[in-house]
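#struct-pred

JT: dropping the chains for the assembly here, can someone run the whole complex?
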Amino acid sequence: MDDDSLGKPLMLEFRNLTLGYDLHPAVHHLNLVIDDGSLVALVGPNGAGKSTLLKGIMGQLKPLDGSILHPSVSRNEIAYLPQQSQVDRAFPITVEELVSLGAWKQTGAFGRLRMRHKSRVTEALAKLGLSGFEKRMISSLSGGQMQRVLFARLLLQEARLILLDEPFTGVDSKTTQDLLVQIGEWHRQGKTIVAVLHELDQVRRYFPLTLLLSRQPIAYGSTNEVLSPENLEKARQLNEAFDENAEFCSYV
Amino acid sequence: MYEWLIAPFVEFSFMQRAMIGCITIAVSATPVGVFLMLRRMSLTGDAMAHAILPGAAVGFMLAGFSIGAMTIGGIVAGCAVALLSGLVSRFTEVGEDSSMASFYLISLALGVLIISVNGSQIDLLHVLFGSALALNNEALLLLGSIASVTLIALAVMFRPLVMECMDSSFLRSVSQLSIYAHMSFLVLVVLNLVGGFNALGTLMSVGMMILPPAIARYWSSRLDTMILLSIVMAVLACYIGLLASYHAAWPTGSAIILTLGAVYIVSFVVGPKGSLMRRMATQKHKHLSA
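RK: done, full complex below.
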């Protein structure tokens, strides 16, 4: 073990991890360690198992094989932003109320929302450029504004590990820029961030580390090395449809 | 005026009981209905009513016309359908609409089978249309208990329930409560439907659960106001419906639900939030800033 890895305790470890649906693996035999404080882009073709991996980390999907370990953080120190379409935008709730749900760790299901939570909501909204939006109903927000609101909720969660599933899909470029700044700030604060992304230029500019996944890991490491033309081509070729006739895996 | 509007409730204890019973249902079932509507599950209320019917009928067959037996039968059948369909949809890959429809049909068919094999004649009309004007103490006590349980449960699980409705993946990411919030909510739906069938009949109790929230949606876009408004609306409809039923000798359940139906039609035409009029009158707009 070299000095570098001694200095950085691990945040996430996948041991021979296989995740999937209905016996078919979406992530196949992943062995990987992600250090504490890493800023990782999770990249791969559609159907490569990126969202599945995030669900696995959240414990929402049980591994078919292997395990996921995060020994230094408990579950309530992990924040997860799923793809935007999962929020019911017609629900009658204000921006302030939605963001305040991020204080769940303190309030729990039944605790009262105190003044300090409310002032943190105001701060978080100001930070994401949404001062004055407190009383607006979420149904009146644009896609970009909604994503800022969800990032404000993430701020309140004060998580040490943050998982983002396609955070910039359907979001305007100004908002994307502002959210990238926020992600950079989390990184400087020492938080670990894993984000599913599609724009490779964006990944190259803002994310020091990349995991290229195509149901099986293609490469993990410094972004420039991982996103080589050869690796990207390999990822494309590996991502074939499920083979119904595939034998049961006997990997040990 | 007094003769028409107040006197029936002063003079006759059956009218007082009917009013108390209906108010109790209004206070209890409509908040549950608001969440049903927000989860786009309004038709689930209807499906659950079918699921309850056979349980109540079996209760009647075993113990005669006993509110206790019919209630227990209804609760057992309703909860079984709710829990089974919830569990099947969570642990398999097919949605809850399909599992719920399947289980309520099984429940209904089973009920009909049991009744016909035993050759019992059940006054299904009573179960369908209730008898608000014949509520006894036992029935009022039952309604009161169900309302208490419902309101306490809603108060306790308000936050998880809102999260489960609006963004269940977020709730699942911060706690394990999602499945419990969903299941206990379905149990509340069952309890209120069962409670309602004595006073209004199963079908009418579904109406009390679904119509007031549907009305309130056109008048408010805030959750708390929506809940309050639905309760007020339901109580008013009970009063008007009972009066109509008293003076014109109409069936009580129908009178109450038709009152709500009339308000619903007015609401989706002229209500301030997303009604027809509102959509047509979008010519005016405001400046960007003050």
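JT: nice. Chain B touches chain A at residues 38, 93, 156-157, 159-160, 162-163, 165-170, 172-175, 177, 220-223, 226 (CB under 8 Å). The domain at 16-208 of chain B is CATH 1.10.3470.10 (ABC transporter involved in vitamin B12 uptake, BtuC).
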